[in-house]
Amino acid sequence: MAESNFVDYVKIYCRSGKGGRGSAHFRREKYIPKGGPDGGDGGRGGHIYLRGNRNYWTLLHLKYERHIMATNGGNGSAKRSSGKDGEDRVIEVPCGTVVYDAETGEFICDVTEDGQQVMLLKGGRGGLGNFNFKTSTNQAPRYAQPGEPAQERMVILQLKLLADVGLVGFPNAGKSTLLSVVSAAKPKIANYPFTTLEPNLGIVSYRDNRSFVMADIPGIIEGASEGKGLGLRFLRHIERNSLLLFMVPADADDIRKEYEILNNELVQYNPELLDKRRVLAITKSDMLDEELMEALEQELPEGIPHVFISSITGLGIVALKDLLWRELNQENFHEVERIVHKNIDVSGLAFDDDEDFVFPVDDEEDPDEEYEEYWDDEEDDTGR
Asked: Cβ(100)–Cβ(108) under 8 Å?
């Protein structure tokens, strides 16, 4: 997968900015010898945001930017001048990105819509200047508050493709061929297992200028939920699909058994996938006549809409589009909001460049500086 531009999970280091120090300055002018404290507040540190962007479809751009750091807030100065706020950093991610803590595997947030913005790390509040501590009994405070420290975190970003229809099947079931026929996508097609090594998306045109998105997921084998074959890496993309299209070739020894194996692997990975609508397509049906189709229908799983298709001859393709469109427009169309993301086992994720990862050092860090609490119970309008 090293030569592929499809990157669906990365690990990055994020650090917000620390707050600037407050100033302990006193007003000194020629005719005002005792002007009193006038130290300004420090600026807040920059925040780290995630923002959905529909123009991205992989996490490739983050693979080469492993450190995301906001700038620190400026220090306060004389004449009650506040320090400059740190610059925020916005991480653009494709819609469907899920964020986990890299150390514990805990789910943090989910970005599903274009323009959706989520605060990942909050910048430190700026310290108060000595002007804020002036009282009738303490008219010359000679101290100010240091800024809040920065927050830092290692996070894992995982992409789960957003598509209306997801193709589920064993290797060589005809998934890529179908996608190439019903859409303008050009996935790699060959007569050997695991030809498809990365998901492919295609827009399927329908009547009256309507369309829906179809995703070709790499082939699943028995034991995929335990890591066999391509394992868990691509099973997560199926979670986002509103409708699952199971594809079993007509020359399979037992169509019902193959469907049950595929269904079992999905349930083992995430039991909530049982609630998704599903359709069964018997591929390579150009080798069947009407009698064989009627005989096979008696052995198909009950309660699952089915259609016999052939991507080569075009048999049943129109009927398949009609069936998919009807199923997609049921009441539970687009149920991505109902997905409950589980925590992940980070020990099972391998990153090629983990050994070369270097944690950045903050040269401005003062080891002797201690943060003290002087805040009121409620934040002010500026968010400090």
From this structure: yes
Do residues 177 and 311 make contact, with C-beta atoms less than 8 angstroms apart?
A: yes
Q: 153 and 183 share a domain?
A: no
Which residues, in sequence order, are CB contacts of 63 under 8 Å at separation 6+?
A: 7, 10
Q: Is 177 contained in some domain? A: yes
DSSP string, 221-236: -TTGGGT-TTGGGTGG
Q: Domain of 297: which CATH number?
A: 3.40.50.300
Block residue for tokens 């990942």: 120
Each residue of 241-299: pLDDT tens digit? Answer: 888 899 998 888 888 898 998 888 888 877 777 878 889 999 988 888 888 888 888 88
Task: Give pTM, 2 decimals.
Answer: 0.73
Q: Two tokens at 13?
A: 């280091």
Q: Is the backbone of residue 274 left (phi > 0), alpha (psi -120 to 50) or beta?
A: alpha
Number of structural domains the chain divides into: 2
Angle, in degrees to the nearest 10, between helices 317-328 and 175-182:
90
- Distance, CA of 214 to CA of 201 (rounded, Å): 6
- Closest-CA residue to 341 (of 243, 279, 270): 270
Same domain as 241, residue 174: yes
